[in-house]
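user: can you give me the structure for this one chain? tokens are fine.
assistant: on it. calling the predictor now.
[tool input]
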Amino acid sequence: MAEYTAPAIAGSVEVWKDVAATSSWRGDDQEAGHALYRQIRRAVGLSLAGITGTIKNSAQAMLKRLRQDGYTELVAIAVLTAPQPPRKTMLRQAISRRGLTPATPN
């Protein structure tokens, strides 16, 4: 699961960058503070062993790459704990800006 950890964290950082810059997304500062605390606890305690087992069963590099891209976004969303954005599309847009993706061995 180590290959998913960095992209998941990068996605969370992108979302929190937008949360910090958008006052309507932050909402109540206390709520944002609690959400950030929960986010930190979730990224530190992240366990992705189940996803790794599924991906290792893939025999084709292209299929593996497609799964990795899909799982990376799902993991980034799953580990994210942030206030609700003003528009749902803001969350996916922020996560898609992450610069890190898992490496695919050939």
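assistant: here you go. The radius of gyration is 15 Å. The chain has one domain: 2-94.
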